Amino acid sequence: MYYRRLRDLREDHDLKQREVAEMLQTTQQVYSEYEKGIREIPLHRVITLAKYYGVSIDYIVGLTDVPEPRR
Asked: Which residues contact 27 (CB under 8 A, 6 or more apart)?
């Protein structure tokens, strides 16, 4: 599920939920709900995270296990 990827990406970059939430201009509580799968993450935030982490949207949503975006 995509929410596991959100947590894994954040942890791989040694970030706290609060830091990612600030970058997304949301609250830590809302971001936490994205990671837990309680709240659907809006597409514009998925795009922002893909750019931030340098991965494809397909990777975040679990359509591929290859993190790098196609060139």
From this structure: 21
Residue 29 is given by DSSP the state H
Phi, psi of 21 (to 5 degrees): -60, -45
- 39 contacts 53 by C-beta, under 8 angstroms: no
Q: 39 in helix, strand or coil?
A: coil
CATH number, position 47: 1.10.260.40
- pTM of the predicted model, to two decimals? 0.90
What is the count of structural domains for the chain?
1
In a domain, 67, yes or no: no
Give the integer Cα–Cα distance in Å for 69 and 71. Answer: 6
| pLDDT tens-place string over residues 14-56 | 999 999 999 999 999 999 999 999 999 999 999 999 999 999 9
